[in-house]
Amino acid sequence: MEKVSVIMAVYNGEDYLEESINSILRQTYPYFEFIIVNDGSTDGTAKILNNITDRRVKVYHLPKNYGVSYARNYAVKKANSRWLVLQDHDDISVPERIEVQLNYMQGHPEMVAVFSMFQQFKEQLPVYGSILKPSQAGPYFTARQLKERRFFCPWVCYGSALIARQAFLQVGGYDNSCFLGEDFDLFLRLVELGPVAMIPRVLYLYRYNPSSISRRNRQETRRAVIKISTNHILKMYAAKHIKPTFLIVGSPWDCQNFMRHTYPGTGMEIHACLDSSDNATLTRALSLFKQNQINGIIVLGGTKRNRHLINQLLQKGMTLNINLFQLKKFRRKG
Question: Which residues 6+ apart lie within 8 Å of 327 measured at CB?
């Protein structure tokens, strides 16, 4: 049977680490190596890891906290199989996860990665048994939807991924300089490399933890996601040797935040920022595009009005993810 490499990075994760590890050790598909990198933890993480007796588990202790991207890349370097199974240190994989995902990838060799649907649960609830009532289930996306909506950061649980190791290496792995949104950045590069799929079945349980970095820094995380999307868009233009001139469309608040947090340092040219609630925006945007004063439009947010605007622009000849892009809106405090 073909072996897979399960990858986990952990920093100060003593509260839920054993539960997460056991969800992998209980998999119905037993042919795996489980590589766990302790990223300089200062709590009881090291003790928990050193007490593991299962020979499939390989533990590496880093001397200091380098960040999750570095730790995951380190784990991949130690991997010895052609399949990488991601596992976050506080989440749960259902027993059939690896078996189902591996079977899918073996039957679809054109895919570079496969995710699964997920269910969210609050940290104070037990994971096993009938008492578990997940508060929210993540959606299912087809491969086409994942690609079309990639810059909008679709609601995907990146910890549910099984990735072809060759694809991971080909796109350069995680960006070590990326400390927020690193999963999304890797996702975009994988989607740009080849088809990515999602299994229409919940195989992963995501722990809603208000103390996690992404939850504690929701504004910063959203800014990072928008910046990552923008940088990938700019790389697309650069690959075509096109100097981008963009029109930014969104609420005045979103446009202001884009100019303040996203625009600096990109080298992109912004022709104007238009209010998406203004009825004249569609006419002006089309006029600027047809007159070649702009060669791209970025729409911030997924409001009903914004979706209508995008549909109108598509009907008038623009192309999604070529010269028309939809990104997340900026998050306010709270």
Answer: 151, 152, 153, 226, 229, 230, 298, 299, 300, 301
pTM of the model: 0.92
CATH superfamily, domain 4-216, is Spore Coat Polysaccharide Biosynthesis Protein SpsA; Chain A (3.90.550.10)
CATH of 237-327, one of 3.30.420.380, 3.20.80.10, 3.40.50.2300, 2.40.37.10: 3.40.50.2300
Per-residue pLDDT of the chain (334 residues; tens, 9 = 90+): 899 999 999 999 999 999 999 999 999 999 999 999 999 999 999 999 999 999 999 999 999 999 999 999 999 999 999 999 999 999 999 999 999 999 999 999 999 999 999 998 875 544 444 334 556 678 999 999 999 999 998 889 999 999 999 999 999 999 999 989 999 999 999 999 999 999 999 999 999 765 555 455 789 999 999 999 999 999 999 999 999 999 999 999 999 999 999 999 999 999 999 999 999 999 999 999 999 999 999 999 999 999 999 999 999 999 999 999 999 999 887 5
User: CA–CA separation, 154 vs 198, rounded Å?
Assistant: 12
Using DSSP's 3-state secondary structure scheme, residue 227 falls into: helix
